[in-house]
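Action item from last week, closing it out:
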Amino acid sequence: MIFIDGVPFSSASSSSQGNEILATLLEHPLIVSAANIFKTIPERKFSVPKEFGLENSPQAKHVYVFQREYATVDPSLVELVGTDEATTCIGLVIRNQKSGMTSVAHMDSQKTVDLGLIQMLTSVIDHEMDDELDVHLIGGFDDTPDEDVIATTGAGSDEEQSGHSLPLCSKIIEALQSRREKFQIQTLFVLGHNTKRDSDGNACPLVNGFLVETSTGSLRPASFDKSSRCPDEIVRRLRVTVSSLDPTWNGRLLETYDTHHDRFHIAPCSWSPNWKYIASWLQQCSDSEILLECSTSPSAEGPDFVDNEKR
């Protein structure tokens, strides 16, 4: 169940759907205040110095989460955990107030929400305690097409007309509200709160990523360079794509980090022969074609999106 400032959140009716609950939450004064504060925090550009690993290196130990991955970290072992490259995706943080155990997921589909929550909560909650869990949702800008776009493209279904971010946000909120755990919503920096206009008038996110300080639970906007998106960046990027055709990952978030042994364990997925032809075809595409084929928000992607797809 969702709580705000320690008080159970109640919507207009007990049968309210996720989008109705979400709309009410986004207008809550405490949520609005938290969003206004979050967007004033300077973005941290996170990188790993070349001397990392040497004795007396000041670099904080961190875990990076790619799209469709999740990781749960122990604050006694890991100082920072985060993700970036989110446009229509949602970064979800669940932190146990008592133990400090912190789980971060980069969700890109409604299909992974229910099982993904179970995966995250398994190592965050001590089932013998009445745990209270701090929750943050960051990402998912307002990508709802305007009326001119709908008229031009002929988009007719509710999903087509609501964009990608809203249905995903609504699904997450509905899932949180329906569970028995106590979810204290601290940050809801999504949709209108996380939207700006670029020089061409296109909607795009204010914030694409964040870092969580595990000892305190504090969050700040963040971006990561290639040195910090590790280990096995390319393998993990490939895994995000090919897992969509692997039935063993249906509805699940990709496992990346072994919480109890404090090590990365890149759980495998199978490679369909079809990907050979898809990859070959994409290699022949122009940059603009790659954007259109591989992104849910071509006008909002970062400058290295196409390069990452090509790599």
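Closing note: The chain has a mean pLDDT of 90.
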